[in-house]
Amino acid sequence: MLDKDIDSQLLRAFVTVAELGSFTRAATKLYRTQSAVSMQVRRLEQQLGKKLLARSSRQVTLTSLGEMVLPYARRILRIQEAMLNEVGQEQISGKVRLGMPDDYAAYFLPQVLSHFGLLYPNIQMEIFCELSRNLEPMVHSGEIDLAVVTRHPENASGRFVRREQLVWVEDAQAFAHEQQPLPLALFPEGYCAFRLQALKALENAGTPWRIICESRGLAGIRATVSAGLAVTVVTRNTLSPTMRIIGPEQGLPDLPEIEIGLLTPGWGEDEATDVLASHILESLRHEGNGTATPEVEPLSNEPSAPRGM
């Protein structure tokens, strides 16, 4: 017997792929990774028990069942959007100040805000892009209401959201990894958990290294890498299209996962802040290639050790 409850996100992924004829273009439109969109379509196909799309190396086309399901899926999404727009006009209003590092903002913000804006059109958001180590005191001082940060492994605070895999990257047209000692572009010491994990991995592997660029801003690091001068570390999901992942095949050690957390002074103090916090938790725990776990940790109001991106 077929499951009568179908997640609208699965329908949206299917409709977008069907309309654009490409998982890549659908992923761009939905602000998701291609693998995430593909997984959503597979889940819908598994739920219906049959293939909806015929995949080939050149194109994606509808199966006979897909052609039958498509108009129903479009109708369901239109009805849902109309309902949300109607209800949202009478809902919560206010202003929420949200902070997160630049690289997280570029990847996570579009997917978080796209549906939130439909649900809560009367909530105004102010975005602050800073390093995680700067965002935490901003939350505790009341300068901002929420922050998505990298949690320090030795002193994690905030509510756990997901894990992200760290990867070595260099410019796609360069071979900086072949230089000895390995040239690195990193945040200054004490600014970034990524730096700590990268240098620890290199030391444990006995790989010689040298830092040729230290920058307090992500733009400086990415410019150095894009010039082909250095290697750096990012999370897999925030990889720039102009960079490529390198690793053990190029003689570099494996890197660990890092944890992403959500910081807020507390729950129940402001309704607009609470609904955005809940939306971020739900959105990021089910998006992309990150690893999320269902446990909910208590929020901490104590500052933790410095961290970076």
UniProtKB/TrEMBL annotation:
PROSITE patterns: HTH_LYSR (PS50931)
Keyword line: DNA-binding, Transcription, Transcription regulation
GO molecular function, one term: DNA-binding transcription factor activity
InterPro entries: LTTR, LysR_HTH_N, LysR_subst-bd, WH-like_DNA-bd_sf, WH_DNA-bd_sf
Residue span(s) of domain HTH lysR-type: 6-63
Short name of any one Pfam family annotated for the protein: LysR_substrate
Spans annotated as Disordered: 286-309
Keyword Transmembrane helix: no
Family the UniProt entry places it in: Belongs to the LysR transcriptional regulatory family.
Protein name per its UniProtKB record: Transcriptional regulator, LysR family
Organism (species): Desulfohalobium retbaense (strain ATCC 49708 / DSM 5692 / JCM 16813 / HR100)
Taxon lineage: Bacteria, Pseudomonadati, Thermodesulfobacteriota, Desulfovibrionia, Desulfovibrionales
